[in-house]
Each structure stands twice: as C-alpha cells, then as structure tokens.
Amino acid sequence: MMLIPTHHFRDIERKPEYLQPEKCVPPASPGPSGAMWFIRDGCGIACAIVTWFLVLYAEFVVLFVMLIPSRDYIYSVINGIVFNLLAFLALASHCRAMLTDPGAVPKGNATKEFIESLQLKPGQVVYKCPKCCSIKPDRAHHCSVCKRCIRKMDHHCPWVNNCVGENNQKYFVLFTMYIALISLHALIMVGFHFLHCFEEDWTKCSSFSPPTTVILLILLCFEGLLFLIFTSVMFGTQVHSICTDETGIEQLKKEERRWAKKTKWMNMKAVFGHPFSLGWASPFATPDQGKADPYQYVV
Question: Which residues pair with 112 in a beta bridge?
Fold first, then answer.
C-alpha cells in the first residue's frame, strides 16, 4: 500500500475548488448559551466511570482500612484532609476536562456566505474539513470520536471522554497531576500501614479481617503504582507540549511550524491564564487566555 505524504492533503486544501461551499448545509442554530458539552461515546463513558470508581475505591481503602481504625488521631486527621482534598481536586479537574468544550469549530460553517464574510486578503489560505464541513482555523484537527474539528487538539483521551484541546488542556493537566499525587500519597500510606501491621497485631490494625485487609491493600498498591506511572508520564508530556507550544498531533505528524515562537513562560500563561496565581492549580478557575482571533489563516 502506497503511503501519501501529509503535505499532499494540505496542497489539495489550498485549491479554491476544493472548498465547494455550495455543498455545505448552513449550520444549525446554536444551542442555549452555557449549554453543557458532553460526548456520547460508549467507550469514553465507560472509561470515565471506571476512573471515578478507582478513585472512590482508593478513598474507601484509605479511610476505612487505614485511617479510621488508626489510634494515632493526628496522623489520621492530617492524612485524611490531604488525601480527600487531592481526591476532590482530581475529580473536579476530571469533570471540567470532560464537560468543557475543548475548542470545537462551528460545524458546517464552510458556506459561501461565511467564507465571504471572512474578507480574506490575497494570499491567505483557508482549510475546509471534508468530514464536518467546517472552515478550519490554523492548528485545528478533526476528531473522529467528537466528530468535530478541535482547535489545538492534542489528543482524544477516553479517560476524560473528551478531546484535549485549547480550552480544556489546563483541566487535563491538573487531572493528571492530582491523580499522580493521590497515587503517591496512597502508596506511602500503604507502606506505613504494612509496617505498622507487621509490628502490631493484624487484628488490631484494621476493622477488617487480616486476609481482607491484605487483599484490599495489595489492590490499592497495584492501582496506585499503575496510575502513578501513567499519570506522571502524561503530566510530563503535557507540560513539555505546552512549553514547546506543539501539540501531540503536531509532533506525531511533524507538521511545519507556521506560528510565532514564544517563551516557555508565555506558553504556560496561555494555557493556565494571565497572570500567575493560585488559580493555576484550581480546576474552578477558568483561564483568561486573552482575546485571540479564533480564525487564523496562513499567508
């Protein structure tokens, strides 16, 4: 099978006749302002449910197997507050990443009227997505799961049942960070609990029977180790992607850089908001990304 270079498709899109605006149906009237974004994908919904189940399982083991039965009140209170706060922030970040529009381009807007309204200058190039019939801004890519073109799409993540794009990358980064932190915290507490149970009577270090306690702790240890490795790698790749201002898809396709190069600090502020504040670590703070033109074309 002969492979066709990526730039071949770009060349085709540069031809005016390829746009074929007469074949695009005008987009439907937009929904109510503030309507919730949610992808109806069976695999993504299942993965999101599994994510919540695993976090709640960790919550159950930490509280009812390790902290509540502990006779060290200060140890239980401090670790309980820290773990629950991190778990709450992780689930809140997951919800924001899942329910936030990642930067979807209006569907079916490649109409003759819309193209004329852009008032393009001579030499400017526009791209049309043949799948969703949309005029694609620069750095937008089509997602086959969301069935939309997404601005600065990094990848589609089934664990958050959404694309990671321009508008929700901050929440995805926070989700991976907080999951990695609660995984590390859980592993440390499991280690201390095992040491405590070996030194004391197993029947006194948990409200469950010794075999049940061991099984629950081993399962939590396996889950924590797996998620610590996975989310730490994801967190590192996302931070690297932000600092280099190059999405995962752009790195994979080795696309030619057609946008202005900025400093790493400016790239971080573009994702997490201006200026630097504690809001960077909060999934409830919507980043102020400035008033950039959503439609940018190559000259």
Answer: none
Q: Please tell me whether residue 26 adopts helix, strand or coil conformation.
A: coil
Q: What tokens were used for 58?
A: 């960790």
Joined together, the tokens standing for residue 148 give: 């939309």
Residue 275 preceded by cis peptide, ω within 30: yes
CA neighbor of 65 nearest in space, from 198, 226, 186: 186
- Residue 166 near residue 103 (C-beta atoms within 8 A): yes
| CA–CA separation, 172 and 44 (whole Å) | 15
Q: How far apart are CA 276 and CA 136, in angstroms?
A: 31
User: Contact 90/178 with Cβ under 8 angstroms?
Assistant: yes
157 among known catalytic residues: yes
Query: Among the options 132, 143, 157, 163, which is catalytic?
Result: 157
The one-letter code for the residue type at 59 is E
Residues 25-53 have pLDDT tens digits of 555 555 554 567 999 999 999 999 999 99
Neighbours of 70 (CB within 10 A): 20
* This prediction's pTM: 0.84
| Rounded-to-integer distance, Cα 249 and Cα 229, Å | 22
CB 103 within 8 A of CB 118: no
Read off φ and ψ for residue 126, nearest 5 degrees: -120, 150
C-alpha closest to that of 162 among 280, 36, 288? 36
Cα separation of 280 and 107, whole Å?
Answer: 31
Q: What is the pLDDT of residues 185-195, one digit of tens each?
A: 999 999 999 88
CA dist 54 to 59, 164, 173, 229, 239, Å?
9, 22, 19, 15, 25
